Amino acid sequence: MGGRVWNAPTHTLNMLAQTPASFSPMPVTNTDAPILIIGLGNPILGDDGVGWEVANEIKRRLGLVKGPIKRFEPNMVVDTERNIEIDCLALGGLSLMERLIGYEKIVIIDSITTRMHPVGTVWKLTLDQLPDRSVGHTTAIHDTSLQNAIRVGEQMGADLPPLDRVHVIGVEAEQVYDFSDDLTEPVANAVEEAVELVLALIEQFQAGIPA
């Protein structure tokens, strides 16, 4: 079995050491808006590739790919019938912010390292609940955090979602700097739980139910 699923609190990263509380984001108002799913990470750095693994599994579950997926290729898929885009990226900060322009239904999947819960724990939170720099690839070295990048983009007039509309599914990981093509067992076991959370968010988006 994978790690336990937590709903994150609205406080700081230090509060992640406690039992997180549930939250109630603002309701989705446009059921026709496209849904953007992004797997973040680096697939050759062990558990850092969990975001790509989850994104690729979602492609399979939705029947959007046939045959094996080349793990090391981004391979963006667009489902025009269900109005869903699934992408794999390695950069955060300003580059990730630019990818979000024009979308209001967004799910980002990434590894997260808090060292406060067991490896394989799955986190479900929104970007406003995530302290800057606590998720590996929403921040880029020599760049800025995604939260700050969105604020800068908004000041420049970019069409970006509020932080509480950007959903983050994080998988607690530890080995994110070791060269490896494989996920560790606890993180691999958490992939299914992360996939189910993303699929549930997609259903809520499509139904116009607050996610």
Q: Enumerate how many helices there are, as a single number.
A: 4
CATH topology: Rossmann fold
Please trace the helix and strand order, writing H or E for each element: EEHEEHEEHEH
Structural class: alpha/beta
Name of the CATH superfamily: HybD-like
Number of strands: 7
Which CATH class applies here? Alpha Beta
Mean pLDDT: 79
What is the 3D form? globular
Helix-residue proportion: 25-40%
Describe this structure in words.
This protein has four helices and seven strands, in the order E-E-H-E-E-H-E-E-H-E-H. A seven-stranded mixed β-sheet has the order 1-6-7-5-2-4-3, with helices on one face. Helix 1 packs across helix 4 and helix 2 packs across helix 3. The longest helix has 23 residues. The chain is globular.
Would you kindly provide a brief summary of this structure?
This protein is α/β, with parallel strands linked by helices and 211 residues long.
Which keywords apply here?
211 residues; alpha/beta; Rossmann fold
Fold blueprint:
Blueprint: E1 5-7, E2 35-40, H1 50-61, E3 77-79, E4 84-89, H2 93-100, E5 105-112, E6 122-126, H3 146-155, E7 166-172, H4 185-207
